Structures are given as C-alpha cells and as structure tokens.
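Review form for a predicted model. The reviewer records the input and the model, then writes brief findings.
Reviewer: anonymous (R2)
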Amino acid sequence: MLTPLMLTLALLAPPPQDASLRRDLDASLGRDLDAWLRRDLDAVRDLGVIGAVAEVRDGARHLSARTGVADRATRRPVPRRPQIRVASATKAFTATVLLQLSAEGRLAVDDSASRWLPRLDPRITVRHLLQQTSGLADDDHPGSVTEEGYLRHRLDTVTPHQVVERARKLFDPGTGWNYANVNSVIAGMIIEKVTGQSWERQVTDRVIVPLGLTSTYAPDPVPYLAGPHLTGYRQFAERGRLVDTTVANQSAHRAAGDLISTPGDLARFFTALVTGKLLRPAQLAEMRKTVPVSPFYQKLLPGMRYGLGLMWFPLTCGNGYWTHWGDALGYSTRGGVTPDGRRVVMVHTNTNGDALQARFHRKLHPLVDRALCGGRS
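Model under review:
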C-alpha cells in the first residue's frame, strides 16, 4: 500500500530513461562536435595557416583533428601529438609555482619583488608581476622583429638580468595594465632566489612530473624541438614571405615563454589547475582575481580579463573560460578550459606574424568558443 509520502516521492521522481537512447544522443552530439571541429580547423587552414592540430575533451569524450601539413617543403603530415613552442602559456606554469611557494609560507603575493631583486622599484609586488600591472615594458629582442634579425640572433643566449636591464617603465606599479614578458622573467628569478634551484627544475618537479606531462619540457638554451613537431613559419613583414623559424634559442623569454608542450599535455595542465589539483583553494582564488586589460587588448579580445598568470574570456553560451594563450616565432597556442574542468580545448598552429594574427584570430576564437560551448555557439 502506498503511503502519502511514497506517492509524493514517486510523483517527484524523474521518468525512467532508456540507456541506449542516452548513448545515441551522446554519440550524435559527439559526431556533430567532431564535424564542427574539423570544419572550423579547416577554415583556419584556408586563411593561410600551414598546419594546425586541435584537441577537445568534453567529459568522457575525446576528439582531435588535424589539418594542413607539418612542413610545407616536405609535405610531412601533422603528427597526432606534435610538440610546439607554447610561448606565453608558460606564464601559467610560472604563476602556479609562485603560488605554491606562497601556500608554503615562503613568500606572499604582495611582497615587494625588491626583497629578492634589490634594483627593482620597491613598489612592484609579486602580484603586479603576475597580473601584468607592474608598469614595465619589454625591449624587443632583435631576433624577434625582422627576418634579418632572426637569422642573425636566433642562437643567441640572453640572460634574465639582460632582459630586466633592457626593460622600460611605462607607468607606476598598480596604476595600469601592460602585457610584458619581463614580468614573468622576473617571477622566474624570484622562484630561483626563494628555492635555490632553477626555474626549470621547480616547474618540472612541482608541475610537469606530478601531472605526467611527458612531452612538456624547458629546452633552454637548446634551440631545437626534441620530438615529433611542426615546422614553425613566421611572416615578419606584411605581405612578406614565410620564414622557417623552428630553430630558436628562447632564453630571452625563459619563465615567460620557454616551454615546449603538446595539445594533450596543455589540456591536462589547465584542467588540473582550474579544478584545484595544483593549488590550495586560497591560492587558486588569488589566481582568479582578475583586472581589466588595456584598451588595445579590449578591442582585439572583447571581454578579456587577466588574473595571476591566467586569462579569462567570456563564452557566447554563458559563463567563460580560463586559459593562457601563447605566440612564439612561428607558433601559436589557443584554447582554454571551463571553470568546472569538464570541457577543454587546445589548438596549435605553426604559422603566425603581426599582420596575420588578427585574421587568424577571427577563426580561432569562434573555434574555441564552439568547442567549450559543446557546439552551441
């Protein structure tokens, strides 16, 4: 006999669903997302990218797509898990290590950076460095500006102290926002002062090894990629030729952009980061405190905000995603992860240049948005 309570519970219970129907719906959505991913990646190739690879993880689903070629001379196909220089995505690794040190009580994010580097403006804090609000600006390395400069300086080793010495001051700390590699270079120097070990050792021991990122490493000062990779192409001048920039000493960028990785490794890192596997709740909360970016970046990337070594972008389907994009000579990394870690997408391309970036972005940004919205954008 049904009691009133049992009857109420029965009426409130969800109707039974056929397991095979759910599987069919999931499979249909997976096929649609796979088709969208391949179409969107081909659209990027059609704009002039030589080769590209994308990886999407949506819950238990794992999708990947490749387009173009890894090398336009040999027509070598794009590897399934290619290594590329992930450039400024490195900044998120560096920020993670500093925040781990903060959790251990070895520094505080509002400490003055001059505590370890006395020649710096004492008003610049660790937070300012990670948040790009220090007021410092880069002096561009000659090997990254022109084709002639690249060919002449591509094997040069640049020390962190040289990077800091060449930096310029734009504004007082905390009064504006300017994206500059020198901030993360200094952050790497602080890591070394605090721990007595190299930045590379600390990132490896604290992030790369624990997460099993077997294809992620800091090559400094070796100018080559060790595993299967894409050949990088850079257009230095508008309407200029594409220059093979695969071989490059990235020591000038170091803790700001020296890492080499793959789509799968980066997807694993960002998922672990936002879901609290690398940082304690207090430090992750600090990392997620964002500030507005400069008018230039707001125009190029509407809605973008910047935390401690993390970028935030809104999604057309609501909410947003965390990431850190990167551009090295001939290599670009785009993608991100939803705050719950359920969906993540990483896209690598092997072609870039100042005159090409805005054009490529008009296709890459919708690709990322659609993947993280489950095809609903």
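Findings: DSSP finds twelve helices and 17 strands in the chain.
Further findings: The longest helix spans residues 19-46.
Recommendation: see findings above.
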